[in-house]
Design brief:
heterodimer; A: about 220 residues; alpha/beta; Rossmann fold; 6-stranded mixed sheet; 7 helices; 10 strands; about 30% strand; B: about 375 residues; alpha+beta; 2 domains; 10-stranded mixed sheet; two-stranded antiparallel sheet; binds adenosine-5'-triphosphate; binds magnesium ion
């Protein structure tokens, strides 16, 4: 295993309080993820996969425990620090593609860059690079509804890439795709790891998708097995 | 793409809704401007020049009670009084017409030029009026309306006195804020239908504004404890007295305005809430991408502000053009004359629109502030 860990998780617990009962979404999870790993996170529904992913990506907070990403303890950042941190360090890919329907592919990809200091032509260049990486240069000016599901998801990957984050998290990125489109998307993710050295954490139900990863881990009732 | 193109694309995303909400803001602001202008005109009627030197004297009991003509000699002797004329309501209807479309008053032709100096008329007009007992002078608007020229005759049926009178047009005046009245001779009225020795009220002209308080006091005092006590007051005060009767209209207009604004707030606030509600998931995505609360607030605020400002610009603009370039006198059959959209009214309405934009952004902003990315993502589209 590579010496450099990009994600270090220690004793992470997440409880949801529902009236009188506590629901344990994550129970004392510890995990290390190395740089340039493609981790497939598997497990039955309700096992806490999304919860873990959200905490790593800095959109949710644990009840207790520690989650360091590149030496930053994300659990200790405040709301607005966390927002900046996400913008610069994490690329997010969701199950439903979640593109803004009124923006073209290129504009959707450009969104995270609006928060940076880059000027218009620098932004345009980075958008073009990102779209090229996912093989959609020719679709830059199409609206989401003019794209297939697989293409939409690749646009979403380009959007996750465009700020050049080290870490990319994907929550069931192929869950809504037919197998052919899923293959395309997974291929893109794989090449991101191989060619660009990105670290990828992907939640999936699908063993075939998980096979694209360099490592597979399983969650069961909030615990790693 | 820039932040502003993003905001504009978002605002126009649902074109029909954007159109409807802009239209409702526009219509409401049009209405608001109209109400403000009407209110202003009702409470601050256009002042004629010379108003500051004019005094109205009426029966203390009420305006409809007559005054004895013999008061005139006493009034004329009060120092500071430059001219006096009776002013008696005739209540005539133009032949064949149902209602009264202009007012007629009996006056003293010799005092006309002094007391109502703002009514401009050629010398021949004054001469005719002085020489011919059955003559009258007509405001330009009325003369034009009926196509009456100097020398023409017409008949008015009085609703006050039994019968009708024939008048000859001696001259046509203009220059008052509302050139519509018809003035004829008190002696003609006295000789035909009227009650000799009785007039409706007096109008006086004082020599200088400094004389005004003293003269009004002296007139009031002169007829104290007589059978016809009077109330003398400046033209302005007299008009305001009239307006006291409009008090409830004022309250009515004010409450309608409030309802308009209130409704408008509800409409735009619910439009914005809907607009944000249906993009909740997208806003959660934006949050996940690193947009902070304050940026999302700015988006929402810009959008709601934009919608209300565009709507307001249209509504206020249309009102301004309609009332500035349209003939409001004709449109309202003479109820309103100037109907001026003042900068103050424009400013007030624009302020209402701006506040509207801010207020309607509050609820959606709070909802977005409370939203966590995780919960936002769970919202169904
Ligand atoms: N807001 C919440 N309130 C209460 N319980 C919650 C909440 N969110 C998640 N949970 C619970 O936490 C547990 C883990 O949920 P999570 O969404 O992480 O599961 P998952 O592994 O992603 O499932 P799936 O494969 O269905 O997406 C579940 O038991 C779920 O019911
Ligand atoms: Mg999940």
């Amino acid at each position: 295993m590579a010496a450099e860990n990009i994600v270090t998780i220690r004793n992470l617990t997440k409880l949801y309080r529902q009236g009188e009962i506590d629901v344990t979404a994550l129970n004392n999870v510890s995990l290390d993820i190395a740089a340039a790993e493609f981790l497939a996170l598997m497990g039955p529904s309700g096992s806490g996969k999304s919860t873990l992913l959200h905490i790593i990506a800095g959109v949710d907070r644990p009840t207790s425990g520690e989650c360091r990403v590149q030496d930053v303890d994300v659990t200790r950042l405040n709301e607005s620090q966390l927002a900046d941190w996400r913008n610069q360090n994490v690329g997010f890919i969701f199950q439903t593609f979640n593109l803004i329907p009124v923006l073209t592919a290129a504009e959707n990809v450009e969104l995270p860059l609006l928060l940076t200091q880059l000027n218009r032509s620098q932004r345009r260049k980075q958008v073009a690079t990102a779209l090229e990486l996912v093989g959609l240069s020719d679709r830059a000016h199409h609206l989401p509804r003019q794209l297939s599901g697989g293409q939409e998801q690749r646009v979403a990957i380009a959007r996750a890439l465009v700020t050049d984050p080290k870490l990319i998290v994907a929550d069931e990125p192929t869950g809504n795709l037919d197998s052919h489109s899923a293959q395309e998307v997974l291929g893109v993710l794989q090449s991101l790891r191989q060619d660009a050295g990105k670290t990828i954490i992907m939640v999936t139900h699908d063993p075939k998708a998980a096979a694209f990863g360099t490592r597979q881990i399983h969650l069961e009732k909030g615990e790693l097995s | 793409m820039t932040i502003s193109t993003f905001i504009i694309k978002n605002a126009l995303r649902n074109k029909r809704r954007a159109f409807l909400s802009v239209s409702s803001v526009a219509a409401s602001l049009f209405l608001l401007v109209t109400l403000q202008v009407a209110l202003r005109e009702l409470t601050q009627p256009p002042e004629s020049s010379g108003a500051e030197l004019r005094v109205a004297v009426r029966n203390k009991i009420s305006l409809t009670n007559p005054l004895p003509a013999r008061q005139r000699g006493i009034i004329e002797k009060i120092p500071g009084v430059e001219g006096v004329t009776p002013f008696t309501w005739f209540g005539g209807k133009y032949k064949g017409e149902e209602g009264m479309s202009f007012a007629q008053f009996a006056v003293d032709p010799k005092a006309l030029g002094t007391v109502f100096s703002d009514a401009k008329m050629d010398a021949a007009g004054y001469k005719n009026f002085n020489e011919q007992k059955d003559s009258c002078v007509l405001g330009k608007i009325t003369a034009e309306k009926y196509g009456l020229k100097v020398g023409d005759r017409f008949v008015l049926d009085s609703t006050v006195y039994p019968g009708s009178l024939t008048f000859r047009v001696a001259g046509i005046y203009s220059g008052t804020p509302d050139d519509r009245n018809m003035l004829f001779r008190q002696d003609y009225l006295d000789d035909s239908l009227g009650v000799p020795g009785q007039v409706g009220m007096w109008w006086l002209k004082v020599k200088s504004a400094d004389d005004m308080p003293r003269v009004t006091a002296a007139v009031n005092q002169a007829f104290e404890n007589t059978s016809a006590e009077v109330r003398a007051e400046s033209e302005r005060a007299f008009q305001l007295g009239f307006l006291a009767m409009l008090g409830n209209i004022k309250a009515l207009v004010a409450s309608i305005s409030t309802v308009v604004v209130f409704t408008l707030v509800l409409v735009t606030a619910s439009t914005m809430s809907m607009a944000v509600r249906e993009r909740f998931r997208e806003l959660a995505i934006l949050k996940a991408l690193g947009f902070r609360r304050r940026e999302l607030f700015a988006f929402i605020l810009a959008e709601s502000f934009g919608l209300s400002v565009v709507g307001a610009a249209i509504g206020i603009g249309v009102a301004y053009c309609a009332y500035t370039f349209g003939d409001i006198g004709k449109m309202t059959h003479g109820i309103f004359v100037t109907f001026e959209v003042t900068p103050r009214i424009i400013g007030f309405s624009a302020l209402v629109a701006a506040l509207l934009g801010i207020v309607s952004a509050i609820a959606p902003s709070l909802a977005v502030a409370r939203m966590s990315v995780v919960n936002g993502l769970k919202t169904l589209d």
